[in-house]
Amino acid sequence: MASQTQARSIDPDKLNTLLGQAVGDMGAALHATLILIGDKLGLYRAMADGKPVTPAELAARTSTSERYVREWLNANAAGKYVEYHAESGTYSLTPEQAFVLALDNTPVHLPGFYHMIASAMKDEEKLTEVVRTGKGFGWHEHEKGLFEGCERFFRPGYLANLTSNWIPALDGVEAKLKSGAKVADVGCGHGASTILMAQAYPQSRFFGFDYHAASIEQARKKAQAAGVSDRVSFEVAPAKSFPGKGYDLVAFFDCLHDMGDPAGAASHVRESLAPDGTWMVVEPFAGDDVASNLNPIGRIYYSASTLFCVPASLSQEVALGLGAQAGEARLREVITSGGFTRFRRATETPFNLVFEARP
Fold first, then answer.
1. Are 187 and 215 spatial neighbours (Cβ–Cβ below 8 Å)?
2. Reported CATH class of domain 112-358
3. What's the pTM value of the predicted model, to 2 decimals?
4. For the chain, which end, N or C, has fewer CB atoms within 10 Å of the first or last residue's CB respectively?
């Protein structure tokens, strides 16, 4: 093998391009931990006002070590996540940097994603083993940072699109929600999507279901804090057997592809819907073939699929292993196999596909 590799000619320009890409990726990989540290210690939030600070001032604001904070600031400045002012030796956040790093309720809040990265790295040895053996690795088996990170990563997309774009794109659903509908949010996690809908449509009743008990516990606390407990309830239940009938809307947010038996889940949704009910399925954006997904977004989704989505599916019965880049054609097959006769792409964003399914 070594002799065969050595016999192949190397293009210096292509080699240098690859190495340049690798240097950028190395910096990004190491910087991921610094973003996590900055989020946990409130360093970005303490700079949200955009006023220049010295390392000592930022350390005093956040009760942290000045020497470490100085190094942290320099790394962020080198990565263009923080601005450095050489004449004064100070650092600041631009409005754009603050918007994505320091403010929690924005549609592009980024730090949550880095909690997911940290969780994956902590589970690396276990994930390496399942790749070797083909065994599954359940969502509940991951290091706990994944659950908070997932909610904080997906919530900005829901905040930006759920009630302003996705639900209005469904035929007649928004009117039902405004007048008073019965809604199931399946695979709800910490309840971000459920709570946002409850806040927007106070006349409706919302039922969040997830098989992960710890996530349901957090969802209940968040609903209480958001003041929507009067119209939201959360219960531990899997997608193939969540309780209730006559739902006007059943929603699956970024979770159908994680299920071992998504066709079985589709059948149960069909049985749970009211005669004129709607199933909204939100999935990661993907084309129907691998080549169309070989881009920066596809890179993120294929990576997440390897670490989280496929292992979750393979840990369950049937173990279909759809993956996060299944694409519309494959999802149509799965959903219609559950008894749905009408299926369409209602809308999309650069990161999500939103499907409407009806009996």
1. no
2. alpha beta
3. 0.93
4. N
